[in-house]
Backbone:
């Protein structure tokens, strides 16, 4: 079983917290431990120098300087050296100027040291042979410590320090050479238990563990809320996507934020609306195609049945019926060709054969072609061409089809005695040419204008039928509602735009642009 996204988010959140807290705690505790050990070592160095100055006149403890220290080291050192109450019994210091040749540390043999009660430092003074002369602890004065590696290094004139085990606990030990006139006179050896340091570090570790536990608990609660805020919209989107896969487009995902999930929800809702509109358009398209195909097929079938019923014997009737069959067949061919053009336009597979095209000349040819149809409707066709009009980069056949569709509509919906004007010239946009087709016909109602150009849409079908009925017999037929759709698709395939302006009762203007050659 695969873990859910919510569990993955929670565990990743907790893992990040554990990793961050672990690294932070490890670095902090390691740094503090090293800090405390260095502070303790610096304090022992200071105590060693004070001890040497008190017991051996003119001597100096050789070791690292303690001047540049951190505030914490200075505080610890001042605290420990201030507690150094060094009391020496049976101590008789040499009189006069002491040199290494006449210095004998044997006078320290019977000396006993008393340290302050608050200080746990153990001080031992050894001669140049490694024999212990003074010990603030319980070790006998004549006991040798020469086997200690720290003392051995100090007897060689080197300062040495390390952490050692003392009585079952950790302690810090230093050994410093005692120098008189630059020559080794003995060694001062100090040890101090690290009990307080270990207690502080143990307390810090416990506090760190408790803090980590509290952070994990808080992070778990925050992770639950955060993962819920992320996964709940995703679950709604999943359910809605499943509904869309089953053909249900009515469900909308609620948008409750402006972040990425909110934008995703809005995009999904927009997609479902588009899918619903596309399905509705497809349903309408299929219904319209079926209707458009059924009408001529029904006419053809009725005509054939009539002919088979005996009308074929009457030559005049037979010729009229055959003309009807031919007209309906032509109508079917035009419809199929129009649908094929739209299908190719949708698939961007029109395969335009572009060339520099003199659009003014193409407009004149198209007007001459449609002049008989215009005269049959008592319509005057007019052309206005700008002398500076550029050549366009277009497919001659496709643009001719656009002009035919637009002029056919303009003629069909113009009043008898009206005028249709085609104007061609340069456009305001750089590298464009503009074509306008204006009529003085019935115009388009405001309510229908947004839908004009949709496939199979015909504004006010009663008006269409009336214009067809008013036309001379056989000169006009009701269109399929694909003319403007085809014109728009072809213009956009050339990289241009088509726009429709109309006012009911005063005429319509269709304008489109094409790229200049």
Residues:
């Amino acid at each position: 079983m695969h873990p859910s996204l919510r569990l993955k988010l929670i565990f990743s959140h907790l893992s990040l917290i554990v990793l961050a807290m672990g690294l932070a705690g490890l670095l902090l505790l390691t740094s503090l431990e090293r800090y405390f050990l260095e502070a303790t070592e610096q304090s022992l160095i200071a105590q060693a120098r004070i001890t040497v100055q008190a017991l051996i006149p003119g001597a100096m403890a050789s070791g690292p300087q303690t001047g540049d220290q951190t505030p914490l080291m200075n505080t610890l050192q001042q605290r420990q050296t201030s507690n150094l109450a060094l009391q020496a019994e049976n101590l008789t210091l040499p009189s006069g100027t002491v040199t290494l040749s006449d210095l004998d540390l044997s006078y320290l043999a019977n000396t006993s040291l008393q340290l302050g009660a608050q200080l746990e430092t153990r001080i031992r003074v050894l001669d140049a042979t490694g024999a212990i002369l003074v010990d603030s602890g319980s070790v006998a004065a004549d006991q040798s410590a020469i086997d200690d590696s720290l003392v051995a290094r100090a007897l060689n004139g080197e300062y040495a320090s390390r952490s050692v085990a003392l009585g079952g606990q950790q302690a810090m030990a230093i050994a410093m050479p005692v120098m008189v006139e630059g020559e080794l006179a003995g060694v001062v050896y100090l040890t101090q238990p690290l009990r307080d340091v270990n207690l502080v570090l143990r307390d810090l570790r416990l506090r760190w563990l408790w803090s980590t536990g509290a952070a994990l608990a808080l992070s778990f609660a925050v992770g639950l809320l955060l993962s819920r805020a992320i996964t709940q919209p995703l679950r709604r989107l999943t359910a809605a996507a499943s509904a869309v896969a089953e053909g249900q487009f009515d469900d909308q995902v609620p948008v409750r934020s402006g972040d990425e999930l909110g934008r995703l929800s809005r995009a999904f809702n927009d997609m479902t609306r588009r899918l619903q509109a596309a399905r509705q358009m497809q349903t309408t398209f299929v219904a319209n195609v079926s209707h458009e195909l059924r009408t001529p097929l029904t006419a053809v079938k009725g005509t054939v049945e009539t002919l088979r019923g005996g009308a074929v014997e009457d030559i005049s009737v037979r010729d009229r019926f055959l003309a009807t069959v031919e007209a309906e067949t032509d109508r079917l061919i035009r419809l199929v060709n129009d649908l094929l053009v739209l299908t190719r336009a949708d698939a961007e597979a029109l395969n335009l054969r572009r060339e520099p095209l003199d659009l003014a000349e193409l407009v004149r040819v198209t007007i001459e072609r449609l002049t008989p149809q215009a005269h049959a409707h008592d319509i005057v066709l007019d052309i206005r061409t700008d002398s500076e009009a550029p050549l366009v980069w277009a497919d001659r056949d496709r643009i001719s089809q656009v002009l035919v569709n637009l002029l056919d509509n303009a003629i069909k919906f113009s009043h008898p005695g009206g005028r249709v004007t085609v104007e061609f010239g340069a456009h305001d946009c750089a590298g464009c040419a503009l074509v306008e087709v204006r009529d003085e016909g019935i115009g388009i109602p405001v309510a229908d204008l947004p839908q004009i150009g949709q496939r199979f849409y015909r504004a006010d079908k009663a008006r269409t039928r009336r214009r067809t009925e008013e036309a001379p017999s056989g000169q006009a037929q009701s269109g399929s509602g694909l003319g403007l759709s085809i014109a728009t698709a072809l213009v956009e395939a050339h990289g241009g735009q088509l726009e429709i302006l109309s006012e009911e009762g005063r005429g319509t203007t269709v304008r489109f642009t094409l790229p200049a050659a």
